[in-house]
Design goal:
The protein has 144 residues and is mainly β. The chain contains 1 helix and 11 strands. Pathway: Pyrimidine metabolism; dUMP biosynthesis; dUMP from dCTP (dUTP route): step 2/2.
Amino acid sequence: MIVKVINRSANQLPAYETLHAAGMDLRADLDAPVILQPLERKLIPTGLYIELPEGFEAQIRPRSGLAFKHGIGIVNSPGTVDADYRGEIKVLLINLSNEAFEIKAGDRIAQMVVARHERVEWIAAEVLTDTTRGAGGYGHTGVN
């Protein structure tokens, strides 16, 4: 798939780090380091602008290493970049740890997965097709 991109940062374009990786790392585009205090959230710019084809979205997801080692996540995870959005991709990070965390220019702050999606056409109904699971949810499996 070919996607148009404008890179206004000094960072390299997102790239797949391994042969079978689904996501590409996004890097912080900062003039100065940003300190993220415990339970604080900040919008971190990437300097990237993309033009996705119709029927695709870019999902912005946390990086597992940042989450595990430092408690850094994404508030609206996964964030969605729609095909008609032309603004800068920014990442809404949150510090879920008890310690301040420093983000520097070029740091890998999130990963982006481009995925196809469908548009839904609703049909009003009075009943739904029955299944073995039925209406069971929230912890219903594994309970005898």
